[in-house]
Structure prediction request, 315 residues.
Amino acid sequence: MQSILEIAGLTKTYRGGFTALNGVDLTINKGEIFALLGPNGAGKTTLIGAVCGLVEPSAGSITAFGKDMKHHWRSLRARIGLVPQELTTDMFETVWRTVNYSRGLFGLAPDKGKVEAILRSLSLWDKRDNQVRALSGGMKRRVMIAKALAHEPELLFLDEPTAGVDVELRRDMWENIARLRDGGTTIILTTHYIEEAEEMADRIGIIQSGRIRMVDETQRIMRQLGRIEADFALVDPLPALPPELAQPGLSLSADGATIHFRDAEGAGGSGGEGKAHVAAIAQKLAGLGYVYRSIDMRESSLEDIFVHLLGEPQS
Prediction:
């Protein structure tokens, strides 16, 4: 697969000694959606800033579109779009003028048709004559995306693109991002909504303390690190777990009313064997005459895996 961005040994140490990035190696493939996950202070925004020319690295190299970023910054930056986490734009300008101005900043000729297409794709066309300050938080976030798209970038960074957006608008934003990818734009996003990464990303990278902990395809992470858990609610409580049911992963609740099953790591998710194990336990319970009223089965989410890897929820 063709790469569009290659980062090697990237390090950033700030004055005072704090190291935000510590030897980061990362390759982004053309045409993918890549989600970068990590707790606050992990280095996500610093990494984006280094690629976009906002942060000067202390060491390492960045190659974009086959060229060294350090020596070809101006021409390469024009091919990269950035939607920052903070809403940074002139709130008293209209949506139309704001997006047009962003296009001109990168030396592109005015193109009313292109700007109109961008605004329509983000459901902003009806708001084109409104001042940005009059828009809702979700609409302001869309204006930021429209500004980033105005110069037709091939690589787009989205730093918390749905922060402060309600669930309905978030889903709508996901659809817009998917359409951008389908149109050939490579997308790197950071997000606090882990289900967002699970839903959208082709690959996921996990960063902690300035180091990349893991990079892999989303579904492969789910297969390799996922688990299956199940609770069998018994009609008649048991005083102890019967010897016939003694096996790794099975336990009895303190009140004897629930048999709990937890499969080994890597058995959950798509293609895992966990569901087959649950079915086998259900059959064994029936064969031994133990009656249960319900089975509550759960598969690991990406958030479960994230917490397991880092030992803390994302915040």
User: Anything to note?
Assistant: The domain at 3-222 is CATH 3.40.50.300 (Rossmann fold).
